[in-house]
Amino acid sequence: MKGTLVERSEAVMPAGVHFVGAHPIAGKEKTGVAEGSDLLFKGARCIVTPTKSTDPQALERIKQLWEETGSIVLTMDPHLHDQILGAVSHLPHVAAFALMNALADVRDRQLPSLDLARHSGGGLRDTTRIAASSPEMWRDIFLWNRGNVVSLIEKYQQALEELKHLIKAGEAAKIEQALERAKGEREKLNAGSAVAV
Amino acid sequence: MKGTLVERSEAVMPAGVHFVGAHPIAGKEKTGVAEGSDLLFKGARCIVTPTKSTDPQALERIKQLWEETGSIVLTMDPHLHDQILGAVSHLPHVAAFALMNALADVRDRQLPSLDLARHSGGGLRDTTRIAASSPEMWRDIFLWNRGNVVSLIEKYQQALEELKHLIKAGEAAKIEQALERAKGEREKLNAGSAVAV
Question: Which domain holds residue B169?
């Protein structure tokens, strides 16, 4: 997506006009002017995606602009951006959307007394917060980054299959090991910023 | 789990002692006395699980006890409890643990420049908050509720497979439909309480 977007945009710029890709890793599941906040970018990462043909002065100006919003600027190749964002953002969105739909199916097809709002706690609510994101926007992101997203969903399917297999087989020690690993990785996230995306 | 637990506990109670199962839908991903809070149960649901042989007076006392902590008490058959908690709590935990492990695999095996803490925003953090939960406790929960958990993971795998198929096939309108459904279900959750579990 950033890869294609940057290539196409660079190709159509008139002489003297420079294109520099940038992606602030900040946002909310809600959209629109009323949801705006002047603190949204503060402490958040912003990925700037220069290529070999990016004008150095234009790059500096764009980096400065994002720094002035309070962002921490990272620079990255646009194709690498798509792989990394696929992992840290697009896959979690797929996971959250699919989880809501799976639970709705369970309720509709086999467990009519399941009342998701009434029976759930903060765990389900946090895990699926981003499933309330814009369907139009996420449809486009999934399609633009299709290759990476599909391959990442497959990795996730493998991890789920492994955990399911261990539970089915009653492999207590290996289940605990898998959960320990996940917990360790999750705790390392707390070192980063805490801005919604 | 509650099903088996309640049956076994009722069977071993001495004369004049009554067992009543209860499950407060409140908790944190952190454990230990230092993490305690006198507001933990306030506004949270507590599921009390009587059976045909539950003593009515004992049931009333247990319900009162939980109401005094500020909980909203629901009563439910213990086997139904296991199906419902499997859906609203155990499956989201599986989803979060597996997501962390899948991302760690992606980083370790194909994308070494992926830095989960540095590149992620609040989306990944919220989606995986409960992956920091106790591995010992969740190992046991998954095994005690094995039948329901395995069947729920399979529903989730189906929902993921469907979404992956639509993305792979470029089915824009159907992707949007699937995301709309998830968003609608997620927004209905906001009507409930917002206590961690």
Answer: 86-189
